[in-house]
Every structure is written in structure tokens, then in C-alpha cells.
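Subject: sequence -> C-alpha cells, single chain

Hey, anyone have a minute? Need the predicted structure for the following. Not urgent.
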Amino acid sequence: MDSVVLIEETRAGLVENVHYGMICGVNDRLETAYHVGDQNHYTFYRSALKPIQAIPVFLSNIISKYGLTREEEAMFTASHRGESYHIGALESMLGKLHVKEEDLFCPPSYPLNKKPKEDMLWRNLEKRRIYHNCAGKHMGFVSVCRENGWPVEGYWEVEHPLQQEILRILSVLSELSVSEITAGKDGCGVPVFAIPLKNMAITYLKLACPDLIQDPLLQKAVMEMTSVMNEHPLMVASEKFICSILLQDANIVAKGGAQGVYCFGLKKERLGFALKVLNGSEDVWPNVVASILEQINYENKETIENLRKLKPSIVRNDAGVEVGKVNEKFSLIASKNFFVNMSRN
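Reply:
Had a minute. Here:
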């Protein structure tokens, strides 16, 4: 496994933390355009899989049949943080979709964000399944099963028709056979899949550039799904989170996952990126993604500035005094073939 130092954190000039990882960027010929480290490293998507897991909902007529709002649509792709607008949308969806909360396989939980969690603890409220950050995904799973006549029981098993349909879609988007995809168990209990980092980047390229998808129904579903993610980015995460910041840029489709996985696609540039921070850190995502965008000379500087505000390069202590720095140490390696093809165009 070939990894590279992505981020180095210092305090008083001494190295305090080092974050190793790998990055792959692909172009619309499905070729490697940029890379750092091992682009073939098998990586579990974790929650970066959620947009792909949501596609069966968008392939169905569930949204129009049950009169879901655009905000509610976005919840199928979300790692929600338990804010009032998340819980309100999920409560509304339970009613519209006629889904019982106990049908959701995700375990009862408290919200991820500090304020709503503290509010619920203060009010002595118990954990609920819809407070789990994967609740929107699970609501989509249950709804698709009922709409397609599949049993709800066991939808969390890889052999279930729902999970086999997700595997089929992932195979199409990743340019891999099903046999090349590794299955594991995610934090919320459903299957999660691992593929080479390059193929992960290809999936997000296709989410950003659905014209690369040959199946017209799948192409239409992806277009619908990504449009609601861009329209309602706060539903996908919440304020001051990288996913929401990137999705506010209409040119970007993005989603992160646990253990340091991040994926995004650029529509105009027709590039897809996937990265893995090997120690599982999510804190350095803004630094890594901002550096990638700077290195490819990304046009929308406001997006880069917003990422820099989210995770400044200066480390401050509790009193606001500067005590260290966060340094990006990697340089994207550009593929020679990529630039040969670019020059021919």
C-alpha cells in the first residue's frame, strides 16, 4: 500500500500529527488524470455510498406518489446531524411514506450535532431511530422494498433484492463487475462496499457528469438526485460542514464517509476525485480538498475560501492564540496521458 503524507500539523515548530493517505482524480475518458499514492487501494465508501444507495428511490415513483418535498428528497442522501430541519423532514416523511419508525434497521441514537443532542438530553428525551444520521437512507430502503414488493425484513442483508440492486447500480457506475466489489458491514448495520480508489472516483465523475451513464433511466435518476443535493445542501449535512459547503457550489457533487473517505465530482471540468485519509481523520478533509482545487486551478475561488474558513491553516489554542500550523504536504501527480489528450482537444 503506497501512501503519502497529505497533511502535517505542527505546534511550536515541531510535528505533532501526520496524516497519510492517497488521492485519485479521473477524467471523462475514465483515465487517471491526477493521483497521489496508490490509486488501486481498496477503500470502503462508508457514507460516501449514500447517494448511490439512494438511487433506487429516484428510479421509482415514490417521490411523486407520496408528494415529497425537495428538502425531503435530499434526506435520502444525507448524513443528517439532527438539526430541527432534519428531524422535521424525517417526521414528515414517516407520515407521507407510511413508514413505521421501528421498521428502520438503524439503531436508536442521539443527534450528531452538539446543540440538538444537548437539547434532547436536557429535555430528557430518549434516543430514536430517526435521530440516527443514516435514518433518511433507511427510510428510502424501506420505501423501495414496499414499492417493489420486496420483503422489508432482512433489507440489511447483502443477499436481499434491495442490496443486490444497489450492487448492480454500483457495478455500472464504477466500471467493475459485481465480483470485483467487496462487501462489508457499515456502522448502521447495512452492507457497505469497497472498490479501488480510482473506480470510486469514476462513480463520482458519473454523478457529476450523468451523460456518461448509458442507461437513460439511471441517468435521469442521477440527475434528479444530484440536483436536490445542490439545491438543499444543508439537508445533506448541516451548517459548517464540508459536504454542505461543497454542495452550495452548483458545479460540485460531493459526499464524505467515516474513516477519512471523501469523494467529489466537478461538472464543468468533468473530473471525479476520491481520497482516503488512512488514520480515518475527517478534520483535515477541508485542507485536502481545498489544496486539490487550488492545484487544478479551480475557477470558483469562493468555494476554496469557504473551505479555508472551515479549517484554517493556523492552529489556535482555547484562548485564540496561534500555537501551530496545518500544512498541506502533497502535490498532485498529473498523468501524462491526460495532458496529451487535453492537447489533442
